[in-house]
Design goal:
7 helices, mainly alpha
């Protein structure tokens, strides 16, 4: 049961992102998504090369990082849905911990690395609001 939850969580969250971000999607938000996923996976690649997490006896979880990027997008554009996504991400992390695939330290450090994604999406949100104000 836990394996099934862990396999379908990321695609389900991606569908939620598509549904809720469809109305506000513009070029800036698409670019922010591309940059955030590029950042997350580039950081994971660089981390694998230098072994920072391995030196701490930890694992950089790229799945958690990708989920965190989607949660950051939802938090910055639809706060209530973003909070629900954040809580569900913590449930997803608990599921992965229950399967002995990661630890809370891994999840916390991965989430801290993803904070620039939240800043990026927050700056895009302010641009979306400014564009909406100009359209009125």
């Amino acid at each position: 049961m836990l394996e099934t939850i862990s396999e379908f969580f990321m695609p389900a969250l991606a569908l939620v992102c598509v549904f809720y971000l469809n109305r506000v999607m513009n070029k800036q938000l698409m670019l922010a998504f591309a940059l955030s996923f590029f950042y997350v996976y580039s950081f994971g690649f660089i981390q694998d090369r230098f072994g920072w997490w391995t030196a701490m006896d930890a694992v950089f979880n790229q799945e958690i990082a990708a989920v965190m990027a989607m949660v950051c997008a939802l938090l910055s554009t639809h706060y209530k849905i973003g909070v629900i996504a954040l809580v569900s991400m913590l449930g997803y992390a608990a599921t992965l911990i229950g399967l002995n695939l990661t630890s809370w330290f891994d999840v916390f450090t991965t989430a801290v690395v993803c904070l620039p994604c939240w800043i990026l999406f927050s700056s895009v949100k302010s641009e979306i609001k400014n564009e909406a104000a100009l359209d009125i």
